[in-house]
Amino acid sequence: xxxxxxxxxxxxxxxxxxxxxxxxxxxxxxxxxxxxxxxxxxxxxxxxxxxxxxxxxxxxxxxxxxxxxxxxxxxxxxxxxxxxxxxxxxxxxxxxxxxxxxxxxxxxxxxxxxxxxxxxxxxxxxxxxxxxxxxxxxxxxxxxxxxxxxxxxxxxxxxxxxxxxxxxxxxxxxxxxxxxxxxxxxxxxxxxxxxxxxxxxxxxxxxxxxxxxxxxxxxxxxxxxxxxxxxxxxxxxxxxxxxxxxxxxxxxxxxxxxxxxxxxxxxxxxxxxxxxxxxxxxxxxxxxxxxxxxxxxxxxxxxxxxxxxxxxxxxxxxxxxxxxxxxxxxxxxxxxxxxxxxxxxxxxxxxxxxxxxxxxxxxxxxxxxxxxxxxxxxxxxxxxxxxxxxxxxxxxxxxxxxxxxxxxxxxxxxxxxxxxxxxxxxxxxxxxxxxxxxxxxxxxxxxxxxxxxxxxxxxxxxxxxxxxxxxxxxxxxxxxxxxxxxxxxxxxxxxxxxxxxxxxxxxxxxxxxxxxx
Amino acid sequence: xxxxxxxxxxxxxxxxxxxxxxxxxxxxxxxxxxxxxxxxxxxxxxxxx
Lengths: 517, 49
Description:
Chain A is mainly alpha-helical. Chain A is about 75% helix and about 0% strand. Chain B contains one helix and no strands. With about 50 residues, chain B is mainly alpha-helical.
């Protein structure tokens, strides 16, 4: 019997929590790097087309699926998905992705989140004061090597990781309204304020002041100068589609879970737009005006290209910015460092909390566990799964989790769920779900887009990704990578087994998923 | 900054900001619907499989 009696405290709280779920570190670290590597300003064209044809339709679909499942007492994807198909017995296993992805991504995502906590601490205590750029870069390399400590605390990254997990778990144990929503209401406005401050600072950077060699507009030009030829390159479209996936947190199962706590007549269309566009504002408007303008301002375009080639977004965000902030003087430098890592922390925690709720929903619904027990179980599971990414970070385990759980799984689940929604559940019924209680008129073109365009789009993304998947599987890898793959596979199978157990438990108790919808 | 980059940047950030503010204000100013159920966990009419 379910012990789940949670609900959202307010509509704005829900939208901020959903926006917080979408807004993550990728908004600030991944988007600008993707843009400069894929046509500069021209990247925004495929990016917005993907948002329109894939992102928005998936937001509508996932919000609707979640609310539909919630009306029948389901708060996690296996039984939400199962309740939408005539033969839910098989489809519920597709929903396993919605638990698997959240657990596996939370495992390494909380590790990045713990870096931001640690860097706020190190900024405040002055660990970067007087450092050179090389030593700040080395600080990061040393940090991810658990044998090296900058504070005297042994196994420093493990300590911060555990602290970060404890914080996440404690907030989750406070419940949806008292924990997740409360954090979103504080964290999202602060994130936007910090982001606006740093974006203005980045854009107004002037050559010759505070050691800058270029104006901030040089970086903006580097990011936004369009190379229109790139639009005809399939790789650019794949990158744009990938970025939309990561940034909106679609294909994960967390949106379904949040939406499952809506009432049957609550709006999903306007809420989905409010949350989705807030994410776009943070990513394109703020995320595009901080990292690149500041780093190009000090290091020039070639310097930034070099860092991106070797360290990507992490190279800019963790290995370079702490050094550059120092050039702004002790007070403004420290303040900017705290704001930068603070906004990354809020971006991270509002996402990691969203990853915890589907697992908690599953345990509460199917096994009658109390909220606190479910939250601490999630925390423990993430700790066990996450420690390999902390300990064997430099052996590539972190990247492996990110690839299989944070990339491939999203595309596979999104493709299957849209087929379910448009073709199994049925587009007519699906369209009614999207429009029930809607506070905006959803353009009827989306009916066609959801039924035909988005599935084809997702299929194309999957097919074009296949060579990379095959290459990944056939290339030589260290033992740690092979073991991490086995661990992920075991996790997926284990969750599928739990879903099967839960299904038969439902049958025994007379609590059935819908058969004849 | 080249004219193309400046125009593209300004058009994009203005467009996204305006749409975001529009939807967010609409969320803030639209009262929730009355009624509607939240999760009846044990629906009697479910068909036994």
